[in-house]
Specification:
alpha+beta, single chain, three-stranded antiparallel sheet, globular, five-stranded antiparallel sheet
């Protein structure tokens, strides 16, 4: 009798397991890996952005932003088939707001600032580009000229209190064509 109950339980559980694997739809992936893309112009592969020095009192409320600082990336030698590009910024996210770039953690007497992070924005300075998940709007490209891809970065208060310290960070950028 016990063996019959165990066999029935196994049979019933296998029926439910197959229902858990039922597909509701299909996802088809398309794309290409191309050896012919634009080139990142000399000097644009590593971009230095001087963010400035600010008092903690300059950040009156969470979300308060400093003046925008230019982040300029230039691509050139674009094939005619590539007409637009967008940028994704990636790096270590801030502990309080994952859409912002966290500051490099300081040690010893080189403590990092707290309650603040770095945000990436479109060139207008107001449209945010979320770190690691967002992408910029598509920028037009031409094949025989330097193509500037201009953005801005701003310090953004992530808490009610900002504490003084180093406010450095590093991010990577990835260019997606067409």
């Amino acid at each position: 009798m016990k063996k019959s109950l165990i066999a029935a339980a196994i049979l019933a559980s296998s029926a439910f397991a197959s229902m858990a694997n039922a597909a509701d739809g299909t996802i088809n992936f398309t794309g290409a890996i191309s050896a012919t893309t634009c080139k990142v112009a000399t000097g644009s592969g590593t971009v230095a952005v001087a963010m400035g020095t600010f008092s903690p009192d300059a950040f009156s409320t969470p979300g308060h932003k400093t003046a925008p600082q230019a982040v300029n990336i230039t691509v050139n030698d674009c094939p005619a088939a590539i007409t637009t590009a967008s940028i994704t910024f990636s790096g270590v996210a801030d502990d309080d707001d994952s859409s912002l770039l966290g500051l490099t953690k300081g040690t010893g007497s080189s403590q990092h600032a707290t309650g603040v992070a770095i945000g990436f924005f479109e060139e207008d300075g107001t449209t945010p580009i979320a770190l690691n998940t967002g992408a910029s709007s598509a920028k037009p490209l031409a094949e025989t000229v330097d193509n500037p891809l201009n953005f801005v970065a701003r310090y953004v208060a992530t808490g009610a209190t900002v504490a003084a310290g180093l406010a450095n960070a590093n991010a990577d950028f990835t260019i997606k064509y067409n």
